[in-house]
Write a structure and sequence with these properties.
Rossmann fold, 8-stranded mixed beta sheet
């Protein structure tokens, strides 16, 4: 029998009871990974719990001949996130990969956003990814191997309306990934990000009150979650041993390498700058390189291929 890309590896996928997470869990198992399917079974705003979705995915994996276990702990608290990692070690004897996919949405225009709406989203996306990564890092360091895949978003990388909480968490997550990559590369630990375009329960909460919104959602519905899974499997495999600290986007059949902040243009004045000289000379020299105030949909403006 031909060796599969993930043979012998154990991977935790958070938020894998449905959508993108489910497809990643199924794809990882199909490539030989033993998978911890983590999902607390909440609604998209993080309320209510139901262990059914995770159990269903585990049943699917087992029916296809794979190995998986259910876990319903929350990523949003350090102790429960640690239990998710321990579930992998207790069940399968080790842990080789973590996919930080769990997420919730509480969309609101910034000037109306409540403290709770801010806290809840930051706790799941950013703190949750930190808690999971930190718990796994101890094992990865000891065995001198391991890989992280963090799900970021073009809402953070580029921008979007009504998502200050989500955008802040997702852009922060790319910096967390870079820091993990820098600090742990000496232990052969890798950390990369994927910004997915795909129809999911979270995207399903986008309003469809106007024809424009309905058309936008119709386009997103064409982008199925299973398009994301192949890149995640690859990044967690040994085939990606030289891929570290990168940010990718997947949009239907397209894969993009996203840019990271670097100097675009510089100005120098030997006698130094004053507020006046900046206004008169400095800013006019830089203005042609300014970035437009754009949303993700305006940058990715073509139909999915």
């Amino acid at each position: 029998m031909a060796q599969k890309m993930m043979d012998g590896k154990v991977v935790v996928v958070t938020g894998s009871g449905g959508g993108i997470g489910r497809d990643m869990a199924l794809a990882l198992a199909a490539e030989g990974a033993r998978v911890v399917v983590n999902d607390i079974g909440t609604s998209t705003n993080g309320e209510g719990t139901d262990d059914g979705p995770a159990h269903q995915v585990v049943a699917e994996i087992k029916a296809a001949g794979g190995e998986a276990v259910t876990n319903t702990d929350s990523v949003s608290e350090a102790a429960s996130a640690a239990r998710i990692v321990e579930c992998a070690v207790d069940s399968f004897g080790r842990i080789d990969g973590v996919v930080n996919n769990a997420g919730i949405l509480r969309d609101r225009f910034f000037h109306k956003m409540s403290l709770d709406e801010w806290d809840a989203v930051i706790k799941v996306h950013l703190y949750g990814s930190y808690y999971m990564s930190r718990a796994a890092a101890t094992h990865f360091k000891e065995q001198e191997s391991g890989a992280f895949v963090h799900m970021t978003s073009t809402s953070g990388l580029i921008g979007n309306f009504g998502q200050a909480n989500y955008s802040a968490a997702k852009l922060a997550l790319t910096a967390l990934s870079k820091s993990i990559a820098l600090d742990m590369q000496k232990f052969n630990v890798r950390s990369n990000c994927i910004a997915p375009f795909a129809w999911s329960r979270m995207i399903g909460s986008i309003p469809t009150d106007t024809p424009e919104q309905q058309a936008r959602v119709a386009k997103i519905q064409q982008m199925t979650p299973n398009k994301i899974a192949p890149l995640a499997v690859y990044l967690l495999s040994d085939a990606a041993s030289d891929v570290n600290a990168q940010v990718f986007a997947v949009r239907n059949n397209e894969i993009f390498l996203m840019s990271q902040p670097r100097p675009v243009r510089g100005i120098h004045r030997s006698e130094g700058w004053t507020p006046q000289s900046i206004a008169e000379h400095g800013m006019p020299a830089l203005r042609s390189s300014f970035f437009e105030l754009e949303r993700s949909g305006e940058v990715f403006s073509w139909d999915p291929i």
